[in-house]
Automatic annotation (TrEMBL):
GO-annotated molecular function: nucleic acid binding
Record-linked InterPro entries: RSE1/DDB1/CFT1 (IPR050358), RSE1/DDB1/CPSF1_C (IPR004871), WD40/YVTN_repeat-like_dom_sf (IPR015943)
Domain RSE1/DDB1/CPSF1 C-terminal residue range list: 111-423
Protein name (Swiss-Prot/TrEMBL): RSE1/DDB1/CPSF1 C-terminal domain-containing protein
Cleavable signal peptide: none
Amino acid sequence: MGLYMLHHRQGFLKICQLPEAYNYDNYWPVQKIPLHGTPHQVTYYAEQSLYPLIVSVPVVRPLNQVLSIMADQDLVHHMDNDATSADDLQKTYTVEEFEVRVLELEKPSGRWETRSTIPMQSFENALTVRIVTLHNTTTKENETLMAIGTAYVQGEDVAARGRVLLFSFTKSENSQNLVTEVYSKESKGAVSAVASLQGHLLIAAGPKITLSKWTGSELTAVAFYDAPLHVVSLNIVKNFVLFGDIHKSVYFLSWKEQGSQLTLLAKDFGSLDCFATEFLIDGSTLNLAVSDSDKNLQIFYYAPKMVESWKGQKLLSRAEFHVGAHLTKFMRLQMLPAPGLASEKTNRFALLFGTLDGGIGCIAPIDELTFRRLQSLQRKLVDAVPHVCGLNPRSFRQFKSNGKAHRPGPDNIIDFELLAHYEMLSLEEQLDIAQQIGTTRAQILSNFADISLGTSFL
């Protein structure tokens, strides 16, 4: 039942109970939220503690109704007279109907309540939902809106199109309509990603990226950029834009208010099927992280003064690592202060990521001295720790190109999953390995504690 006793400083003995909605037989307390559908993407609105969530629900429909929506009437009439019998048209077909739900956690009870539901149109899939801050050029004030990007799925014979939807939030808690639609416009191509850039709205629709200003009722385009094939992710830091293409790796852009230009700074000339991208900030150093379809993680940087960058046109590789799982989302979080990590770089961020097989991981920057020490430890542990099923961890973490041309990048990522085995060795082995790499066991354990403290987000 989860009872525990708490002794109050005034002399009272209180008997308390943990919330029953959580399952405590896990690494962290877990609460399963019944959606009766498939969740696709979630974002957070901090001002009102709301969670907009894209959900799809399977719905059974008559086949003739599905065909009439997906194709034009002439084609349906031709199918009726040609190859489709009356019995076939009486069959049913399961389609996914999408909607965006706005959830809120009721703090006293710990239950999740659906505050609002935004249904999509027939055969319209919601692809992305984001909370954006736009500058209203009419009122000269900033507005926080919910932006939704959609795509109509009507078969390969119909040209791709989608919609951009903007919703405002109601301040009053007693209002029946929590969100109100303030803008809706159809676009050519599927709207796969949206983001706010210095008060403007950045929209990725198929291969085209459009930057628009907000007038309070309309979006007016002010800048464009043509991507190679299809944009899968957008990330913003100050006036810099990072986007990933579905087959053509990552591109690094800058936005200049004067002249209204989206300018390409550099790109990766390799062929990479991007899954997710994000900026990795280490003090004043800006790194670009990308995950791909071969379960790799790569980190690039922009160095226009280096000869290898082809006068700044090419992004250079800082590190690469085979995770062994598809990374679909990065979350940039500021690292927590730790005594051993204190340095001149106070503006340090780590990337928390989720994988398709249900895993959670983290990648974080560390200082040069700690990296060299732990890298030497890692090389010793490759031989000191028994390999699982005889699999060499050094070989497993090498970049997997799956037959594609790839130039190996620098080995600048430490595998903390391997380093964690150091504490499981006997005391004699720990002391011996520490002596071999020119350090002490206490120093190694101190580095472990600092890294764990700096990335203790959960």
